[in-house]
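Data deposition worksheet. Section B asks for the primary sequence of the deposited chain exactly as it was used as input, without tags or linkers unless they were present during the calculation. Section C holds the resulting structure in token form. Section D is free text for depositor observations; keep each observation to a single sentence. Incomplete worksheets are returned to the depositor.
Section A, Depositor: J.P.
Section B:
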Amino acid sequence: MKKLFSLLAIAGMLIFGAANVYAQEGSEPSAQEQVAPATNQSSVSADQPEEIPIHKAIKTKFIEGGAGFMAFVLIALIIGLAISIERIIYLGLASPNKEKLLEDLEEALNNGGIEEAKNLCRAKRGPLAGIFYEGLDRYSDGSRENIAEVEKAIVSYGAVEMGKLESGVTWINLCISLSPMLGFMGTVIGMIGAFDAIEQAGDISASVVAGGIKVALITTVAGLIAAMILQVFCNYILSKIESITNDMEDASISFVDILIKYAAKR
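Section C:
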């Protein structure tokens, strides 16, 4: 392993050194470029506009849109993204491997009985293991009435787990709704400022109303962009919840069948 790391380090140094040499060779001017007149270089640089980095352009537009309303839009976006990331991580951990869990559960029932199966569910994490544990906790004699009680427990606890999966989605939808609203409010404020400028100037010229209209458009675009970003995350989260719910329902049916088979063997 140490030899592998040493080889990788040497290879990285060689690649880095070759890249530096290539960059230096590419950056060295040719003889014709060195003797070219200064006026020609200035004309070329004047024809090519300087590119503004994306972060500086966003910062400029943020300031031009008005720090007040743009800050509220940014806060809504940050809160929505934070909740979305937390939900994605939670749902990723809650995604059940139902086939493996059902196989382990059936093996535990056949080898150690109900208590062994309950210990298995305690050791597993996720909503599906919790649902199975509640069903096993209601199991007593395997009669038809007892199986009906197990099914009721599964349905009731499944609704509780569904609520946990959907927790936070309402706040994401709130941020999605607030973002364009805040942008439109900035639009209205910007238009009011434009009309105030017209009233003070006494004429309707482009230079008088351009500032207010610019603020209005920037805040609208910012609110719409924030809402679109959060909507993508929200739709992914809802699709993930739907997939987990379908797996839970399918696995619950198989779980009841396993219990019926176990009761028939006794």
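Section D:
The radius of gyration is 32 Å.
The first helix runs from residue 2 to 27.
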